[in-house]
Structures are given as C-alpha cells and as structure tokens.
Amino acid sequence: MELNRLMKQEGHSSATPRWTYSLASMTGQRIAKTQLGNWLDPLYLVLRLALVMWVVVGVQACATPGLADQVLRERQYGSPAPPADDTLPQPISLTGHSDVVTDFLVTKDGKYLVTASKDWTIIVWDVVEEVVVRRFNGHKAAVTSIDLSQDEAYLVSGSLDETVRVWDFANGKELQRFVPQAPEWHGSIMGIRADLSGQRYREVTSVQFAGDRDHVLCGSGAGFLLVEWRSARQVRHYDPQGIAAIYLMPKSIVVSPDGRYALTATGKGMRGDAELWEIGTGRNTASLSTAEKSTVAVAFKGSVSLAATASDDGNVFLWSVDNGQPLGQLVGHSGRVNSAAFSEDGESVLTGSEDGTVRLWDLASGKQLNQLDIGQPVDRVGFYEAKKFVLATGFSGVQLWDTEASRIVRRYYGEAQFPPTSTAVSLDGNYVASGFYTGTITVWDSHSGRVIRQLKGHTARVSALSWSSDNTTLVSGSADNTMRLWNIQTGREVFKWTIKKSIDVVLVTSDRQTFLAASGDKMLLLRATDQPVLHTYESGWRNLFGGNVKTVALSPDSSSKYVAAGYRNRDAGIRVWDRESGEVLWQFGGVLTGHRQTVTSLIFTPDLQKLISAGKDKTVRVWDLRTGEEAYRIDMGSPVSQIVYDSSSDHLIAILEDNEIQLWKLTAGKLVRSMAGHAGEVRWATFLSDGQFILSSGRDATYRLWETSSGEQVAAYVQTQNGGWFAYTLAGLFDGSEEGWQALAWRFRIPYSGEVSVLPVEIFFREYFHPRLLPEIFKGSKPTAPLSITQLNHIQPHVKITSVTSEPCIPKPCMSEEVSVSVEVFGNEQTLGEGAQQKTLSTGVYDLRLFRDGQLVGQVPQEGSQSTTVGLSADDELRQWRQERRVVDLKEGARQIVFKGIRLPRRAGINDVEFSAYAFNEDRVKSETARRSFALPAELSPRVPRAYIVSVGVNAFEDPHWDLNYAANDATQLSIVLTARLQALRDAQGQPAYESVVSVELTAEADVDSEGKRRLTKVQARKAQIEAVLKVLAGQPVNDEALKGIKHAEQLRRANPEDLVILALSTHGEVDQQGRFYLLPHDIGTNPTEQQRRTRAISNDELSAWLQGLDAIDLVMIVDACHSAASVQSKEFKPGPMGSRGLGQLAYDKGMRILAATQIDQYALETQRTQLGLLSYALVREGLEQNRADYRPQDQQIWLSEWFSYASERVPGLYKDWKDGTLKGRKKGEFLDAPEAHPGDSPSLQQPALFDFARKRDALIGAGSR
User: Fold this and answer.
1) CA–CA gap between residue 969 and residue 1168 (Å, rounded)
2) Cβ contacts of residue 621 below 8 Å, gap of 6+?
3) Do residues 1152 and 1097 make contact, with C-beta atoms less than 8 angstroms apart?
4) What is the pLDDT of residue 800?
5) Residue whose C-alpha is closest to residue 422's, from 414, 432, 431
6) What is the phi-psi region of residue 927: left when phi exceeds 0, alpha when psi lies from -120 to 50, beta otherwise?
C-alpha cells in the first residue's frame, strides 16, 4: 500500500503502527506532499502541534480507570450513564423508544422493523401496523448496534454497558452475553510510557454476525473481535496496535454478503481509516484512507466488488474491494455522513448526514437522484422496498419515506418522550412552553403538569420560545426558517415571519407589539405586519471565527429600552443597543477586555444599572452600564451554558457544561449549593413560586423540580409525543394523564437479585398513583410512598382469553348478539437472584375484570359483596380485600372462567370488537392485559342507537327544612332542551341519528296553597323510583310498583351497547367523615337523625351497584349538588386500572364522563335570577340554547366533551358575575382551559370537577351556532 511505502521511506518498517507515522508527520518531520495536504503550512503546523499535546493527554486519560468511560460516552454517544442508584425507578417508553434510535434493520420479508436505542432497549415493530410486537430488555446502557443471523433465528446486540448479547429472536429470551476482552498492550507514545493492560474501555459500538449463525464480529475499546458466541470464545483479534487501539473508537462493521470480508471504521478522532479484512484469516487486505477526516460509516455492494466509506467531511468514497483503490466520490452533503447503504440491484447508494438530509445517488454517473429533507441529523439509513421506500433515523425515531412523493409514510417511535429543544416559562410562572425536534410546541401548567395546548405548524426543530408580558401570547422560532406568533387562549397561529436562516433566539418586547429575532450574525426587530422589519442590529465583528448571535436579552423596563447580544466564538464579545434608534451604546468584547469564548447568557438587572453575562470561558461577569466597565467576575470552574437571576433574593442559577446546576449569591460571589440529577446535558432552568423552587430540563427528556432551600430534587416530569404527561418522585409516586402513563414503564434494579426489571407503570397504580402530586409539592407537602417499588411483590398473575364464542339463540332462526368469553387464570411463582440472595415470590389471582372495547362488561367476584373498610388499618384492609376478591390460589392451578351473555355492539362501521382482561396479584399489582379480537357475525346488521335521558331534581323533601328552590327546574329544563337537540340530529344520510330519545323526569316539587301551607304537587324522586329506572336500563328485574306514574317509563328498555345514557342529578349532597358521598332523594324521613338520613340517602356505592350492569357506549352523569366531586373522588379512588370499589372506579372502567358541580369542600349554588343552579345554567341556557358550548373548535357542532368543558370553565365566572349583580355572558372561546389552583390563588366558591374517562371517544349532542 502507498501508506506503507511512504513509511518505509522515513525509516519505519511496514510493521510499524500507522499512528506512529501520523504523529511524526504532525511534528514537522520531512515528508512528501500527498493527498493529505501541505504539512508545511505554518497555521496547520501550529494547530497540529496543539493537537498532538491533546492526544497525549487523552492517551493518559484513557489509561485511567473510569475516566475513559466518561470520555467515551461524552465524545461518541452522549448517552446518559445509568443512574447512581438504579434501584430507584426510572420511566422509559412502553409503546416505543424514549430516546434516540441508534440502529435498525428490517427482516427479509419486510414485515418487521427492529430498532435499538439509547433507552437501553430493542424493539420489534410490525411495519404495516406501526405497533410494538416484542421488546428485548436487559442491557444497562445505550444499545449501539444490532444484527440478525442469516436465518433470522438469532439477534445480536452491543451496548455501552460493555456487553454483547445474543437473543432468541422468536421469543426475546437472552441466550448468551459476554464482555469483549483486549490483548495486553505495553508501549510508549512520543516517549511517554503507557501500560494499558486491563485498563481499556470496552463499550461495544458495533456488532455483526460473521457470515454464519455461530460467530459474531464486535467492535469495542478492545478492538474488532471475532467471537464464537455460544462459548464466548474469542477466535480472532483485528486491531493494529498503537493509538488506534487506544484513542480511535471502533464505529461500525459491515460483513460482505458472501461472508468473506469485513469492512470496519474507527469513527471520530484524529484520523479514522476504513479497513478491509479477510474474516477467515484476519489479514488486513486494504486501508481505505481518503483524508484526515474520520471514517464513520461503511457499506458493501451486494456483488462484494464495491465498498463505500463515508466521513465527517460530508463526502462519500467508492472503492474497489479487489485492490483497495478509490473509484469515485459523491459530493453534496454539507455535514458529516453517518450512514450509507447500497440498493439491492447495486445501482444506487443511499446516504444520511448531519445536515438533516437523506440522498439517493446513481452509482454509474455519481449524480444525486433525490433528496429527502428530514429536518434533523440523520444517524442511519436503509432501503425498505426497492428504491421507492427508505428508512431513516433521527431524534424522532425511525421514519419510512416514500422517495417519489418525498413524504413520510410511517413513523416508528410509539408514544415516547423526547428531550425539549427549547423551553420558556410565562412571566407569572404558571405556564411552561416546550418545543421539540418534531416542530410541535406543548404548553403545560407548571403547577399541575396538565397539558393545556399543543401548537402545530413548524416543520423542523423548535429552537426558541418567548412569552409576552401578559402571558397570553407565545412567539416561536424554528430551524424551518420561520418565526410564528401564537394565541395561547385559542391555540391558533396569529402571524408567521419567514427568514432566510434558522432562527436561534426570539423575544417579545414589553409593549407586546414588536418582536426580536436572532438569526446568524444579525438581529431583527419585527412587527406583525406586511412590512415587518423595523431595525436590523449587526454585530460589527468580522473575524476568522465568525460572529453569530448566541444569546439576546431585553431590558425589563416597560419599554424594553435596551437590546443586548452575546456572540459565539472566542472574541465576539457583547453589544448593547438602544432598541428604538439602533445606536450602539456599549460594547464589551475582545480577548483582552471580555469573555474569551462564546457568550452564552445575558441578563439586565431590574434597575438597568448592570448587565450579567456568562460564557464558555468558565466565568460569570457583571458589567456596570454606567461606566461600561466590568464590575466583577466569578470563576465557575466549568463552562457556563445559562444563567437566571432573581433580584429579590440575589440568587443566580448557573447551568454548567459538566451537567451541574449551581445556586449562587451573586453580589457576594458565594456558592450556595449544587444540584445534579439529570442524566446528561442540562439545557435550561428557571425559578418558580417566588424562588421557592427551581425547574430544569435536560437532554434526558425530563424536567426536574428542585427545592431551592435544600437543593433536594422533589419531582420530575416528562411529556409524551401524544400530548400526554407524567410526573413522578424518586420513590416512585406518580401522577399523569392516561396517555402519559400508558406510554411508560418503570425500569429498576431489584436489590436482592441485581436483575433489571421493566414493568408497565399502570401495574403499580394502587400504591403509587398520587393524584395532584405536583400541586401538593408546591404547597410544601412531601408525599411519601408506602414502601419502595423494589420491595413490592411485583410478580404478575397469568390471564389469558382462550375463546370467544357466539351463544345459541332460541327460538331459531334468530340472530345471536351475545357471546361467551372464556378466560384462563392461574397464579405465578418466580425465584429471583442466586445463592444467599435468592428469593421466591408467588401470588394467586384476585379481582378479574373483562372489558369490551375498553368498557367493563364483567367482573369476578361480582361488585357489591365487599364489607366496610371504615376503621381498618392498611394491612387489615389489604387482608380483607384478598379474602373478598380472591379468584384462585396459586396451589389451585389454572381455572377457566366463562363470562356469559356479553352483548355485541351493532354500530355502523364496526366490524370487530376487542375483548381484554386483567387481574391483580396479592399486593394489588396488575397483571398484563390479555387481549383477543372477535369478528362480528356478518348477519349482525347495524342498529340505530337510542338515547335515554334520566333527570332527577328534588325541590321537596319529606323534611321541609331541606327543601330547595330550583333543583326540579334544573331537571326539567335539561330534559326539554337536550331532548330537542338529540331529536334534531341527523346522520350522514339525513336520517335521525337516534331511533328514539326517551326522557324520564324524576322530580319532587311543592307549592304553597291559599292558606300558606306547603303542599306536595309531585313526588317521583323517591330512592326506589330512581333505583328502578336505572335497573331497567341495566336489564335487571324491578318492582313494577316503583315505576307507576312515571311519565315515559313504559318506553324504557335495557340499554344496548351502542346507546347513549345521560343521568342528571340535582339535589342535596353530603360527605361523611370517611369521605363517602350521599345524594338525598325525596324520602329522607321527617326530622331524621344524621344516621337515618344517610341510611335513606343514595350512597355512591349504591349508585355504583345500580349502574354496574348498564351497558352503553356513552354513559354520562351530571351531579349538580354540594360536595359532588366526592361522588367520584373518594379517599380510595385513583383514576386507573386498580382493584378498587366505588363509583369512581366504575366510571373509569366503563369509560364514563361525570361532571360534578363542585369540588369536595364546596357548595353548589342556585340563583333566583336564573331559577337554575349555576352548573345547569351554564349547561342549558348558555351551552345549548345560546350555542356557547360550540367553541373548541367553533364548527357548528356541540360534542359532549366541549359541552362539559365549557360548563366546567364557565361556572367560576358565573359566580363572580352573579355576585357582582351582572351575570353577563362571555364570548365563545374567550378563556383558556381552567388551570389548577396555583399557590397563593384564592379558591373560587364553586369550581366544577370534570372526570372524563371516555378515552378519546366522543358523542355529538347538537348542532352549534349558525
């Protein structure tokens, strides 16, 4: 080879490692001019001498145990290290990856996609259905590489946890694991003695099957090794000794289709060649050296005659495998090329780059055929179907692209969370906006975690966000070269600016009329008009290293008088302008007078006397704006990426590039405390709640909440890509939306066995779900878990749906619409750990539940048989639950349970149903959910649904002291208006949407006769009457006497699975000391004691039992009563899949919507002016009659969800209007989603509680505005 020839000319033997030649060249020894460049250029000589010293230091560092691990992670993968205490639960994605995809492959039949990720997992996807088929768990750090054997029986994976693992691809079982071992090496580098025996880092970066199913090629710090995986025997070592063995980390391996050759790349570093090896002999046949740039990707053409190498200078080189000579070059990428792949016909090559593009090239001509703009760095590419479809990975998972249409066909990332690319908090601290690589912006309530808005419009990474001073407007900047203005109340885009370059910083001025954008080396002052540019502020610096804007600040005065900018690179400095005139007022810059490296953050003090700056030169500086001089500085010891200042406390937050958050007393220059917890880079932080807390975000996709006074991390928070959210504490307590927790799993290490366990979050609901977790923390509480998740019996019972069969119908011929569902259950026993640490866990099966399309249709044992839990300790309550809810003991073996008479839905457009079932273990840990689909019989024709409205209003009680004025009118008006709306609805063919609308009013009313005596005029709201009506709808036997005299009672039928049932209750509500809720019917007795009254009242347990058998697709309840949130929100209830009792659990399991008029501690009001309760007025008068519920969106349709949301948000304002004597209405869409109460807020006298468990299902109840 030419390189060996040149080395011999310098007096080196061909056996001398190539790194020796490289170092000698760098020190200025005589060499010939080659394609590597002119080494005598003085500038290059200086740079290379500096680089030599850096490498020598690096070699010494790599010889230090532990330090090399850190260097490798930060240099090559940026992957978070495992948590210091991995027995603490960490959330990971359950339905997709929760971090960047590092590698992928497609099975030969094209049916399955296999992905590896930095989240430690490997996932098998069904390509067409976009669903997870199988998950491989076991690695304890980022999975870097995967490959399938030729027969696709085995999967091999490599990881930063230093292991190579081989799996049974069919069942996900781990078959073998081993750690690559390097031969001992002793030597010297430029006279420095190095002994690296046993000290070399061994993180695995690439793996491939070596042409058969028995041998694996793996690349790691131990070099490239050939291993017989069953015995873990290292057969061969491919690694030229020297600096390549120490510094250049193996990046990738590809094996030729015939299994003869391996092509390797050493990746990032001083120099990285591609090497061609004979696998059988270990002979290095060629070094494919193109430039000083590192080779980071390699590929073989199917014929083995051609190879491609891709490097970090953006070029792709084609090579002859026979003689190692270059054949051509593909030029076009502007960033490092990370991946290359040949098409099956060998006519094209596909490349992916850091420049955010995937390019398809013609090999014959070297011309680019197509370009796909991914919008984010591309790590891996591959062909899927000929050349029409290609796969590419980026921060947002794997994308399947149609190359002809240049569009994304499918995405494979599930409901995973990804790190925010930008964050901004509103000035009042109540709302946080998060931008993502996908272009989506999420707005969420900082004190509850609840997602309020998702803003979609950007087509690439959101790079900057800023709030207006009134907290109603958000401006965003993006890599798609646009800046957008959003109305947060409506979620709509108000204005869009298009700028030539990616936008790095955006700010809103105090007057909210002008906006600042930083792009490249310029700043623009803009307005939302056709002529948007008011001023252009330029750096004035032109130097070798450039002068792009890094950070911008506006002075905090009412007119935003000053604009300041900090610049990138070593001597760009700081400039301050007068915002209106554009005149430069101050300039702090240059190597001698200011920051010596990039200025990363700027802050004006409120008095406008000082400017605080931070930089990568490891300093924070305070500048006196009166003199233009530096007042003082603080040496931070590490580069600073951001600062935040609270003038009231003189506290300064500093984010350091070593992933640490520091809190300083600025004036004193004193470090108060340090905080560390993010796994990886910390990107942003701010103060919350008047400085009591610090909120930070990081590369690990989490927001973390710290207590300022102690530095303790009190909570963490993540968002999922489907708009869900999830908050948790280090002990495992959690809160979140259903979309959030269904997408996540807990990963933790079991202390006594050392095994890593990954279990769905939902199985821990009973003990660890903590509603309103963040609000409690903000109020100063520190909720604690009953015990660590790792101490819980997490062994899950087995549940399997074995059959779904149609039941015979009699007499024949008839059409059967009922099925029997057979469920097999049995206990479980597992032995964990080894030796003295061995432990056996076992469980039986408890509380089996069956669902049809997500709605509860069966339960064993039946609800209603439990005893009271009042006064019981937690242990006694658990023992009682086990006795009452036991299905089968472990020793009893398997048991077949048959649910009979399960009815099938007959909705138009429904061809099949899904049955699901789950049970619980002895500690109320949920089993996996068993699922089985059932195709509806062809003869089961669609049926037009029916609607039932049951409205209860009690004005008159047996004891007149309890009488109300307008409860009966609540029931009557809702019945009249809602019935009319439902009857007027039409389907797509213009036919009535409901076959019939049956309205039953159950009211108790009284008036005063001519002698002034109270007289009962209507009594149809007795407890027995309410029970009878609901039991008819549930298909249960009733006493006909209870239905006598009730209008329309004869039209009541058993509700069908496609029907709508609305139950509205307006009466008194009570809560006892145990938190149980009661509704008062008419017949409470005369002068009853408290015990008598509650015995005769309707408890939430009784109401739950009456509704248990009611089977309707839409089951809705309105409770206009005092303390009515307690009907759902009892002490036991947590909205999730738990073995609990009560109306709340039933509502969750049946997918009900419940709107309660008040919180638990509030009273429901009725007013003389409206002659209705406030909730009923918002629902009926405003929501339906005035069409104000048609507001989100305003589309001339009113859906159940927006009807309830409108009333929930409107009632607090109605109370204020009533109290002021105005009771004026408001425009539709005027207000934001009602936020959680924030610390210091005054609670409203009446705030409804909305419990929506309908799981994205909705029902149309009327036409909206015209």
Assistant:
1) 12
2) 594, 595, 612, 613, 614, 615, 630, 632, 633, 634
3) no
4) 95
5) 432
6) beta
- The dihedrals phi and psi of 786, each to the nearest 5 degrees, come to -60, -35
Q: Does a cis peptide bond (omega within 30 degrees of 0) precede residue 83?
A: no
Contact (Cβ atoms closer than 8 angstroms) between residue 739 and residue 720: yes
Q: Report how far residue 1034's alpha carbon sits from residue 1050's, in angstroms, rounded to the nearest whole number.
A: 15
Q: What is the pLDDT of residues 410-422, one digit of tens each?
A: 766 544 566 788 9
Our separate counts of H helices and E strands in the chain read 16, 87
What tokens appear for 210 in the block? 């070596």
Count other Cβ atoms within 10 Å, centred on residue 75: 13
Please say whether the beta carbons of 196 and 243 come within 8 A: no
Residue 738 Ramachandran class (φ > 0 left, ψ -120 to 50 alpha, else beta):
alpha
> Residue 671: what pLDDT?
96
Residue 458: which residues within 8 A CB-CB, separation 6 or more? 435, 439, 440, 441, 476, 478, 480, 482, 484
Q: Mapped to the 3 state alphabet, what secondary structure does 189-208 carry? A: ECCEEEECCCCCCCCEEEEE
DSSP 8-state symbol, 184: P
1043 DSSP β-pair partners: none
Q: Tell me the three state secondary structure of residue 123.
A: strand
Partner residues linked to 382 by β-bridges: 391
* DSSP per-residue letters across 12-67: --TTS-HHHHHHHHHTT-----BTTB-TT-HHHHHHHHHHHHHHHHHHHHHTSTTH
- Extract long-range pairs of 49-55: CB within 8 Å, 24+ residues apart: 51/26, 51/270, 52/23, 52/26, 52/27, 52/190, 55/23, 55/243, 55/247, 55/270
Q: What is the pLDDT of residues 1072-1084, one digit of tens each?
A: 888 889 999 999 9
**Which pair of tokens denotes residue 715?**
């909570």
Cα–Cα dist 461/377, whole Å: 11
CA atoms within 13 A on the CB side of 893: 0
Give the pLDDT confidence score for residue 61 in this predicted structure.
35
What pLDDT, in 10s, does the model give residues 162-209? 899 999 998 888 999 999 887 665 454 444 444 444 444 578 888 999
CB 793 within 8 A of CB 922: yes
Q: What is the CA radius of gyration of the chain?
A: 35
Sign of CA dihedral 746, 750, 754, 755: negative
Cis amide bond preceding 1193, omega within 30: yes
Amino acid letter at 791?
Answer: Q
ω into residue 1081 within 30 of 0, thus cis?
no
The DSSP bridge partners found for residue 522 are 519, 538
What is the C-alpha separation between 1178 and 1163, in angstroms, rounded? 16
Backbone angles phi, psi at 405, to 5 degrees: -95, -10
Beta bridge partners of 45: none
- Spatial neighbors of 1173 by CB under 8 A, at least 6 apart, are 966, 967, 970, 1066, 1120, 1157, 1164, 1165, 1166
CA distance 245 to 264: 13
Q: Please name the residue that has the structure tokens 């495998």.
A: 321
What is Dmax (Cα atoms) for the chain?
127
Distance, in Å, from the CA atom of 888 to the CA atom of 846, rounded to the nearest integer, reads 7
Tokens of 546: 């450039």
Under-50 pLDDT residues of the chain:
1-84, 186, 188-200, 241-247, 268-271, 414-415, 542-546, 592, 865, 1224-1244, 1266
pLDDT at residue 996, rounded to an integer: 96
**DSSP output for 488-554:** TTTTEEEEEEE-SS---EEEE-TTSSEEEEEETTEEEEEESSSS-EEEEEE-----TT---EEEEEE
Starting at the edge strand found earlier in the chain, the sheet holding 357-362 runs: 337-342, 348-353, 357-362, 368-373
Q: Which residue has the tokens 């061969």?
A: 236
